């Protein structure tokens, strides 16, 4: 390969073109988190958050401190990873039957081929708990992937958690203290590849089971968010990360922050024949954190304060995530015909077409 098309060791990743299709786009707020370091910035952002967060858990983050090249390097790695032979990738299979999503998930095949059209590689946080084998490609770029993951955790996740705590008028370290990087618990960076497929629905409507999900720029349209007015496409802008509130943060915030339903549909005609790569970071609370609602002066004032009750409040973040992953596995593997809705402790997960 010529030097012009590689940066040192990897082919340069070029984003596909944005679609020219006229789509119904969701209107989402953008939080410029670089403002948090400026006088008055926290207050301004809190006002913005209060305007949407009890209705819709999707928003953009700008001012996140990543250079475009850092993000496209991760896409280049994702692309190279998925080019590895299937027998190499399957050496690193995730144990999804046990609710463990670390490692590789192949695209469904054989009798279950219709159940999904995506491959994934989940790279867990860089702590001794999660030391595990990786392909040489990943090992060769380990420090770069680690720096990328740590930037998301320390420079994006934690400031957002402090901001949400400020909005709820609680100790600003309340959520941060439940997301210590070195503590036991699973977060991961995901490389994902959707293979072109004629079916309309590529990922059924769902909520995520973690704290916050960070979706990096991805011009192939397909991600949709459920709104009161119906499904709306989420536009991906080059300077923004798309963020969504997921189950654990909804539970911890006493239901105030909304874990928002989303899905992935087949891209519009001008993009439908291309593979769709996604680069996603799933932040989760520490494993042992109980999903009990916080006591918040804001929620008290609004009459929305939830009490700690039997049931979900005694379920940990780890138990919730494992239960969701294992149920999902049972469907994808063809062990059950339809998705099971009760996850744990009598709490139901809703699926939407
Ligand atoms: O690929 C995307 O844009 C979204 C994927 C997603 O919702 C998920 O993996 O939970
Ligand atoms: Fe999702």
Automatic annotation (TrEMBL):
Transport keyword on record: no
> Which controlled-vocabulary keywords does the entry list?
Iron, Metal-binding, Oxidoreductase
Q: Which biological process terms from the Gene Ontology are attached to this UniProt entry?
A: small molecule biosynthetic process
**One Pfam family of this chain:** 2OG-FeII_Oxy
The answer to whether keyword Acyltransferase applies is no
- Superkingdom as given in the UniProt entry: Eukaryota
Which Gene3D superfamilies would you find in this protein's record? B-lactam Antibiotic, Isopenicillin N Synthase, Chain
Ranges for domain Fe2OG dioxygenase come to 185-285
PROSITE patterns per UniProt = FE2OG_OXY
One example of the protein's molecular function in GO is: metal ion binding
SUPFAM superfamilies associated with the record: Clavaminate synthase-like
Family assignment from sequence similarity: Belongs to the iron/ascorbate-dependent oxidoreductase family.
Kindly provide the name given to this protein in its UniProt entry. Fe2OG dioxygenase domain-containing protein
Q: Which organism is it from?
A: Cudoniella acicularis
């Amino acid at each position: 390969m010529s030097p012009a098309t590689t940066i040192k060791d990897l082919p340069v990743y070029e984003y596909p073109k944005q679609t020219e299709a006229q789509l119904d786009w969701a209107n989402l707020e953008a939080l410029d988190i670089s403002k948090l370091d400026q006088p008055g910035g926290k207050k301004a952002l809190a006002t913005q958050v209060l305007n949407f967060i009890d209705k819709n858990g999707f928003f953009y983050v700008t001012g996140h401190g990543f250079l475009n090249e850092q993000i496209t390097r991760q896409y280049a790695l994702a692309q190279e990873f998925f080019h590895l032979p299937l027998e190499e990738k399957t050496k690193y299979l995730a144990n999804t039957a046990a609710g463990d999503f670390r490692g590789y998930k192949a695209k469904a095949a054989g009798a279950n081929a219709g159940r999904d059209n995506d491959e994934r590689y989940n790279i867990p946080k860089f702590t001794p708990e999660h030391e595990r084998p990786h392909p040489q490609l990943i090992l060769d770029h380990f420090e770069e992937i680690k720096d990328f993951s740590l930037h998301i955790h320390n420079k994006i996740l934690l400031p957002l958690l402090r901001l949400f705590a400020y909005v709820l008028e609680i100790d600003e370290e309340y959520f941060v203290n439940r997301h210590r990087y070195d503590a036991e618990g699973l977060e991961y960076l995901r490389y994902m590849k959707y293979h072109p497929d004629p079916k309309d629905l590529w990922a059924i409507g769902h909520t995520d089971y973690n704290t916050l999900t960070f979706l990096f720029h991805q011009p192939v349209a397909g991600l949709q968010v459920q709104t009161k007015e119906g499904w709306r496409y989420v536009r991906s802008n080059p300077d923004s990360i798309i963020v969504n509130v997921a189950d654990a943060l909804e539970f911890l915030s006493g239901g105030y922050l909304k874990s928002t339903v989303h899905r992935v549909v087949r891209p519009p005609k001008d993009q439908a024949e291309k593979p769709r790569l996604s680069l996603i970071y799933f932040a989760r609370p520490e494993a042992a954190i109980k999903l009990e609602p916080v006591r918040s002066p804001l929620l008290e004032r609004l009459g929305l304060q939830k009490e700690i009750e039997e049931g979900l409040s005694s379920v940990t973040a780890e138990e919730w995530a494992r239960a969701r992953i294992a149920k999902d596995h049972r469907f994808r593997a063809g062990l059950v015909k339809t998705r099971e809705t009760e996850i744990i402790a009598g709490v139901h997960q809703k699926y939407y077409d």
